[in-house]
Amino acid sequence: MDWQALILSLELATITLLVLLPIGLWIGRWLAYTSFKGKALAEATVVLPLVLPPTVLGYYLLVSLGAGSPLGSWVLDAFDIRLTFNFLGLLIASVVFNVPFMVQPIQRAFEAIPANLSEAAAVSGLSGLQTFLRVELPLVWPGLLSAMVLTFVHTLGEFGVVLMVGGSIPGETKTIAVSIYDKVQAFDFASADQMALFLLLMSLLAVAASFFAAARMVKTR
Amino acid sequence: MTVAEGKLRRGALCVQLEQSWPMPLNGEFSCEAGELLALVGPSGTGKTSMLRCLAGLMTPELGKVEVGEKIWLDTDRGVCLPPQQRHVGMVFQNYALMPHLNALDNVALALLHLPMTERRERASQWLEHVRLSRDQFARRPAQLSGGQQQRVAVARALAREPKLLLLDEPFSAVDQMNRQGLYDLLADLRRELNIPIVLVTHDLVEARHLADSMVLMDNGKVLQQGKPEQIYRSPRNARVADIVGIQNRFQGVWRGPRNAKDQTDNAGWLEWADGNGQPSGVLMRVRDKGRLSVGQPVTWVIHGDGLHLRHEEGNDDSQSGFGDVELMTTVVSRKVLGDITIAQCKVEELFGVSLCLFRSGPQRRILSDGETLSVRVQTEWVHVMPTRAAQD
To answer: Nearest by CB to B55, which of A121, A123, A219?
Structure first.
């Protein structure tokens, strides 16, 4: 078992989740409540990382964030920070490829809230923030939970993008999924077995949890 | 300023709105404190939009909403209070209860300005007030019946101690059996609250039964405001008569006063038109309000109280007032609605015209198919209006 890779993966998944949660809530709620010209395009952009081959996504991230790119070179000059082949680069990539996993369930959950509830809240004297905290959040909670679980597990398991943007630097960018690949290449099947089983169980648990959450959501209606 | 404003008591609601987009909305009405006003009209005529403007959920292009001395909306002066500051209680069409909260917490949600413990205490007082039993306090909306949900929604609306209560089709999701209890509750509330109550409904029977005053809307426009019996007896125009479903509605031609006596009596002559719209020669002397010109096509209605069966009156020949008309009719069809029988009676002298008669109790026996009845039309009850008066 490559403990270093596992801990790195857990760190990456946790930080990705923390960064993406507020962004996902904002985008998901916005997409659910507003209609505007070109909304279909915005929704398609959100889903794009889901359907794009990971290598393609990784390639574009590399091209746009690398030291040779305008953004990458500017950040390097201004802050002396590299955006690729380190943990930060991995985090940025991880946030980008998890956008659909976070936004979609949240958007669906907000869409399922009956429209007149927020009006009823306003008439009952609740401010926008109070309505969000006391009415919307409890109602989208199952969707939110499932979004969080999916994001977390998906980060643990992502391989292609991670390899493209992060390389495989132990302790910096070598995640558990990359480690499994390395172990197999080195014929260390015992370690590969353990880690693969761990990921399998995590994923199963996650999907089960999100199904459970979805079932609860039906009951509250 | 509305005309009625000077006469209104403290706490009254005064509304004046005008909008052409996204949907037309136009009209003014007022409602006294302690009075129940029903907004009625066909569905999709802007009744709910009107209510939303009162609650502050929608802002009309132009308008004014005043409750008591408080101005909630005045587009001329740029005043538009958000719903949170309006102190309005609203019961939504499908109640809009929070599905994740139990009955008590749903009501407590409207009391966030109070400390936590006091909130629940007040909430339970309100729930008791609307006669929800204690074992239902901890249930979520999904575990309550339509009628119980409605009571929770009413309690939530009242918990804010509103200055105006709005009810949007509150009975639509409650079955007929449970409605009576809710009607009673509403009647009690009206007595004890002493605030204006506005009820939106498409059910005219309900509106007539509950309301002190009715506002008739069509196509976003307020057509008439008045007491229910007043609207039924003298609808402002043919469209109003149409919407409220007045059965005895006929066409005619206005012939005007004929002599000096007619003029001193404020009377004029109305010629009944037959089923083809042709003048029939049957003339009636009715009240003249001076608004019609001679030869003008008119629509006229008569209230059921103005149609007498000669048969029931015995040999009493005393003719009242204006000079009534007597017609021979034959019952052609009957409908029995509970205790009431409604009969269509063909008028012999008038081709294609039939009268609608209602009778209940033992008197309904006379309304049997093929029966010939002599009907006295008491012309004092006739209300005449211009036929082309949609803009009136």
So the answer is: A123
SS3 for chain A is: CCHHHHHHHHHHHHHHHHHHHHHHHHHHHHHHHCCCCCHHHHHHHHHHHHHCCHHHHHHHHHHHHCCCCHHHHHHHHHHCCCCCCCHHHHHHHHHHHHHHHHHHHHHHHHHCCCCHHHHHHHHCCCCHHHHHHHHHHHHHHHHHHHHHHHHHHHHHHCCHHHHHHHCCCCCCCCCHHHHHHHHHHCCCHHHHHHHHHHHHHHHHHHHHHHHHHHHHHHHHC
Burial of residue B122 (CB within 10 Å: 0-12, 13-18, 19+) is: middle
Ordered by start, the domain boundaries in chain A are 3-33+40-220
The fold adopted by the segment(s) A3-33+40-220 is MetI-like fold (1.10.3720)
Task: Report the topology of domain B243-386.
Answer: OB fold (Dihydrolipoamide Acetyltransferase, E2P) (2.40.50)
Please state the pTM of the whole predicted model: 0.84
Restricting to B residues 114-143, those with a Cβ less than 8 Å away from any Cβ of A are 140, 142
Interface touch A116/B96, C-beta < 8 Å = yes
Model confidence at A115, pLDDT cuts 50, 70, 90, reads confident
- Domain edges within chain B: 3-242, 243-386
Question: What are B339-357's pLDDT values in tens digits?
Answer: 889 999 999 888 889 999 9
Average pLDDT over residues A107-113: 94
Residues of B in contact with A119 (CB under 8 A): 55, 57, 83, 92, 96
Question: Would you call A124 and B110 a contact, using CB atoms and an 8 Å cutoff?
Answer: yes
B84, B157, B159 member nearest A122 (Cβ): B84
Confidence at residue B7, expressed as pLDDT on a 0 to 100 scale: 63
Residue in A14, A172, A71 with CA at minimum distance from that of residue A81: A71
Give the A:B interface size as CB pairs under 8 Å.
Answer: 64
What is the tens place of the pLDDT at every residue in B32-46? 999 999 999 998 899
Residue-wise pLDDT tens digits, B126-166: 999 999 999 999 999 999 998 999 999 999 999 999 999 99
Q: Assign domain B3-242 to its CATH superfamily.
A: P-loop containing nucleotide triphosphate hydrolases (3.40.50.300)
- Please report, for residues B5, B274, B311, the alpha-carbon distance to residue B346 in angstroms, rounded to integers and kept in the order given: 47, 12, 17
State whether residue A137 sits within 8 Å of chain B by CB: no
Span A25-50, pLDDT tens digits: 999 999 999 999 999 999 999 999 99
